[in-house]
Amino acid sequence: MPNIQAIQAALRASKIDGWLFYDHHHRDAIAGAILGLNPHALVTRRWFYFIPAKGEPRKLVHRIESVTLDSVPGKKEVYSGWEELHKGLKKLLSGGKKIAMQYSPENNIPYIGLVDAGTIELIRKLKKKVVSSADLVQKFEASWTPAQFEGHIEAGKIIDRITREAFTRAATFVQEGKPLTEFELQQWIIEQFRRGGLSTAELPIVAVQPNNGNPHYEPTQVASRPIRAGDLLLLDIWAKLDRPSSVYYDITWMGYLGNRVPDAYAKIFRIVKEARNRAVEFIKEAIAEGRTIHGWEVDRVARETIRKGGYGKYFVHRTGHSIGTEVHGNGANMDGLETRDDRRIVPHTCFSIEPGIYLPEFGVRSEVNVHVDEREARVTGAIQEEILRLLG
After folding, report:
1. What is the 3-state composition of the chain as percent helix, strand, coil, each rounded to the nearest 5?
2. I need a labelling partner for 286 at 20 to 30 A (CA). Which of 93, 259, 312, 369 fits?
3. What is the side-by-side order of every strand in the sheet holding 98-101?
4. What is the C-alpha to C-alpha distance for residues 162 and 205, in angstroms, rounded to an integer?
5. 242: domain range?
6. For 315-365, how does the pLDDT look when each residue is reduced to its tens digit (9 = 90+)?
7. Confidence class for position 159, pLDDT limits 50, 70, 90
8. pLDDT digit string (tens) for 358-384?
9. Same structural domain for residues 313 and 171?
10. Cα–Cα distance between 174 and 229 in angstroms, integer?
11. Which of 67, 104, 63, 57 is nearest to 81 (CA)?
12. At residue 392, does pLDDT exceed 90?
């Protein structure tokens, strides 16, 4: 059930006349999540739900799916034909001029731009100004509850342990001369998730060079390299407690299968670590001082550090992503490269900071999670300071 009063207060504070939710065939998962709708319900006809800044919410649903929005409060109108739909929309939005929707100007934030262009045109034809709901989504879908934060910390402790044990397992197999592939270590990690009460929708990354030079490398049973002495091993591991409404913990650590990390690997790690640390400090200082900052600004801090180190063209992805009930959440991303994410960093949200340098021969990434409240930003787990030496 949506918190109508809180949404209306946020609309008034933003000087927005109302928030229009719209869906068809479950194209907008954000709408369903905020309104608490059944994600598996039959939705073959368009529905609209309007929350005005003041007054009672209003619904517009098709006659043959008239119960679609019965779980949320408000007055219901039904339609059958498209002409009736257009008339119903005009009535639904009466009294409002500035309307928030899941829309992003120029598709700068594609994670928010879920309403099709034709529907936006239709709303504008009714002489309404459509604005982005991006910051509203952060507040009502991406913000964590205290219980979610505690679950994140609990999951993080388990994942940190599994990560350490995965590195130890790799080292033991190498020392004993037993074969171990990236895929086999990945599958062992997944089994530890199951035993530890964790779940994940996507599989962790286990990669040795040159595969760790591909940020989204995925080991498979038929395409996976053996892990051997002298390898640089990247583990990108994410999971959440296997409970309803749990949120993810997502980290990347590096280890070397030897007793002395080669200078080439150590040099790249130092630059990546500096970029990570500077981004984290930028966030901490801004939150402590009460300054508003945006995702693209955090990305700029990390990216400039790597550029000054001489490896700017090898940092090929954003600095970080929002984290929520999905590993890539609906809050602000730390992104000034792939998009210019101009969403504000708001309290009770969490995101990764994960700069990387990806060379043809090998790649290095370091990832932490940062949670923000009204007064403080904090890294929620262990922080890697140097590449782990896995063989004594």
Report:
1. 35, 20, 40
2. 312
3. 75-79, 58-62, 47-52, 18-23, 98-101, 129-132
4. 14
5. 143-389
6. 999 999 999 999 999 999 999 999 999 999 999 999 999 999 999 999 999
7. very high
8. 999 999 999 999 999 999 999 999 999
9. yes
10. 6
11. 63
12. no
Summary count for the chain: helices (H), strands (E): 9, 17
Provide the mean pLDDT of the chain.
Answer: 96
Task: Dig out the tokens for 389 from the structure.
Answer: 């030496």
Whole-angstrom distance, CA of residue 358 vs CA of residue 47:
45
Put simply, whether the predicted model's pTM sits higher than 0.90 gets the answer yes
One domain for residues 100 and 169: no
Return the pLDDT at 1.
79
Q: What string of H, E and C letters represents the secondary structure of 259-272? A: CCCCHHHHHHHHHH
pLDDT tier, 54 (very low <50, low <70, confident <90, very high otherwise): very high
Q: For residues 251 and 163, is the Cβ–Cβ distance under 8 A?
A: yes
Query: In the listed set 141, 161, 179, which residue is the last one of a domain according to the structure?
Result: 141
Q: What is the spatial distance between Cα 205 and Cα 182, in angstroms, rounded to a whole number?
A: 8
What CATH number corresponds to the domain at position 376?
A: 3.90.230.10
179 prior amide bond cis, ω within 30: no
Q: What is the CATH number of the domain that holds 94?
A: 3.40.350.10
The contacts of residue 208 (CB under 8 Å, 6+ apart) are 182, 225, 227, 228, 231, 232, 233, 234
The number of residues making up the chain comes to 392
Residues above pLDDT 90, as percent of the chain = 97
**Cα first-last separation, the chain:** 56
Give Cα separations from 211 to 151, 183, 235 (angstroms).
32, 12, 12
Asked if residues 28 and 15 have their Cβ atoms less than 8 Å apart, the reply is no
Q: What's phi and psi for 100, nearest 5 deg?
A: -85, 140
Paired sense of beta strands 129-132 and 98-101, if any: parallel
State whether 66 and 200 are in the same domain: no
Sheet hosting strand 368-372, strand order edge to edge: 322-323, 349-353, 368-372, 377-379
Judge if 223 and 351 occupy the same domain.
yes
Backbone angles phi, psi at 68, to 5 degrees: -50, -40
Strands 349-353 vs 58-62: parallel, antiparallel or unpaired: unpaired
Do residues 65 and 79 touch, judged by C-beta distance below 8 A?
no
Rounded CA separation 355/117 (Å): 34
**Per-residue confidence (pLDDT) for residue 145, from 0 to 100:** 96
